[in-house]
Write a structure and sequence with these properties.
Layout: H1 13-17, H2 33-46, E1 55-58, E2 70-73, H3 79-89, H4 97-115, H5 122-128, H6 161-173, H7 179-182, H8 189-202, H9 225-235, H10 245-251, E3 253-254, H11 264-270, H12 272-283, H13 287-304, E4 306-307, H14 312-333
Parallel strand pairs: 1-2
Antiparallel strand pairs: 3-4
Helix pairs in contact: 2-4, 4-6, 6-8, 11-13, 12-13, 12-14
Length: about 350
C-alpha cells in the first residue's frame, strides 16, 4: 500500500504498529507545527538573525552534530501518532505550543552554533567549555547551581557545553523573558551577555555552513512503529511507573494473600528518615536525591497495595539495600538502572 493510500484514522492499533515509519503519510507542511516554526523564524528575525534553520521530521528532537538543521519528532505531525505516543510513553514531548517553542528555541541554539561555527572560537570555549567534550548517556547535575540557565527539564544546560550554549541561547531568544533581570547576580548572566554580544556581531552575516544533512529523517527509517517503541520504552524504562514493580514484589507481599499484614507504603514512610540517613551515610549521596527516590517507591507501593511482614527489621533491611543499589547506580551512571 502506498503512503498516499494510508488513512491512519482507519487503522487498528495493531495495523498502525506494523507500519514502517518511512511509510507514514505525514509531512511537516500543513500541520500545527508550521505555526511554531514560523514563530521561531519571527523571533530570530526580531533579534536581527537572518539565518532560518531548516526543519524536518525526524525520529526525535535533535540537531545533528555540526549540521544547522532542526529535527522535529515525526509523531507530532499527526493526531493519531500523538495519541499513540501518549499511550506508549505516557507523555508526548513538545505536544503543546509553548512546549514545542521551548524545544525549537533550544534546537535553534544548536543550529546557530553550527551555522556560524561559534564553538570554534576561543571565547566560546572560555565561557562554555570544550565543544569536543565527550557526550555520555547520562549526566549528574547540581540542582542549585546558578552558573547555568534553567530552561528545559532536568537542568539540561549542565549536560554538555554545547547544551549549555543552546539552553542559554533559548533563554536569550525568548521574547517573554527579561533575562537581565531574571538572572541578575547569577553566574549564568555572563553566558547570556556573551550570547547577546555574539548574536549582535553575526546577525547581519551569512552563515559559514549554509546547508546541513538531515540525519534520522523519518522517510529513511525502515523500522516499524512496534520496534521503534520497543527500543524507546527499554531506554526510558525507569521513567515508567512499573519500573520497580518486580523488585518491590520480591521484598513485599500481596495484600490478597495476607490481608491482615500492614500496608508496605505506611511502613516505609514510617522508617523513611532512618533509611535516608543510612543510605546517605554509606553512599555520601545528597539526602534530597534519596528522599525523592523513596517518595517514588512509597507512591508505587501504595498503588500496588503491597503489604509488609509484621517484623519490620528484615523488610527495612531489604528496602535499604535496594535503595542503596539504586543510588550507587545513579552515582556512577546518572540513572537508577544498572548497565545491561
Amino acid at each position: 500500500m502506498s503512503r498516499q493510500n494510508i488513512d491512519l484514522y482507519k487503522l487498528s492499533e495493531e495495523e498502525l504498529l506494523n507500519l514502517r515509519i518511512c511509510d507514514l503519510p505525514i509531512s511537516l507542511e500543513g500541520t500545527w507545527l508550521t505555526k511554531c516554526v514560523k514563530q521561531l523564524y519571527l523571533e530570530l528575525a526580531h533579534k536581527g538573525i537572518k539565518f532560518k534553520p531548516p526543519c524536518y521530521l525526524a525520529d526525535e528532537w535533535l540537531t545533528p552534530d555540526g549540521e544547522p538543521v532542526i529535527g522535529i519528532p515525526f509523531f507530532l505531525a499527526h493526531p493519531v501518532l500523538i495519541k499513540l505516543e501518549k499511550k506508549m510513553m505516557l507523555e508526548v514531548e513538545g505536544s503543546t505550543h509553548s512546549w514545542c517553542m521551548r524545544l525549537l528555541r533550544h534546537e535553534a541554539g544548536h543550529a546557530i552554533n553550527y551555522a556560524y561555527q561559534l564553538y570554534k572560537r576561543r571565547k566560546w570555549k572560555d565561557v562554555f567549555g570544550e565543544f569536543s567534550k565527550e557526550y555520555t548517556d547520562t549526566y549528574r547535575f547540581r540542582r542549585y547551581s546558578k552558573n547555568f540557565v534553567r530552561h528545559l527539564e532536568d537542568y539540561y544546560a549542565q549536560y554538555h557545553p554545547d547544551e549549555d550554549f543552546a539552553e542559554t541561547f533559548a533563554v536569550w531568544l525568548n521574547p517573554k523573558i527579561d533575562w537581565r533581570a531574571q538572572y541578575k547576580r547569577w553566574g549564568a548572566l555572563k553566558k547570556l551577555e556573551y550570547v547577546d554580544k555574539v548574536m549582535n556581531e553575526i546577525k547581519d552575516k551569512p552563515p559559514k555552513v549554509k546547508h546541513g544533512k538531515r540525519y534520522w529523517e523519518f522517510r529513511r527509517i525502515r523500522s516499524t512503529l512496534k520496534n521503534y517503541y520497543r527500543k524507546k520504552k527499554h531506554f526510558y524504562a525507569e521513567d515508567f511507573p512499573d519500573f520497580h514493580d518486580t523488585n518491590l514484589k520480591k521484598i513485599f507481599l500481596e495484600k490478597d494473600t495476607y490481608p491482615k499484614f500492614p500496608l508496605a507504603y505506611e511502613m516505609v514512610n514510617r522508617y523513611k528518615k532512618n533509611i535516608i540517613n543510612t543510605v546517605c551515610e554509606w553512599t555520601s549521596e545528597k539526602k534530597y536525591v534519596v528522599s525523592d527516590l523513596l517518595d517514588t517507591l512509597i507512591e508505587r507501593l501504595r498503588e500496588l497495595k503491597l503489604v509488609s511482614l509484621p517484623d519490620d527489621r528484615e523488610t527495612v533491611l531489604k528496602i535499604s539495600v535496594y535503595v542503596t543499589v539504586l543510588i550507587m547506580n545513579y552515582m556512577y551512571t546518572g540513572r537508577f538502572r544498572g548497565k545491561k
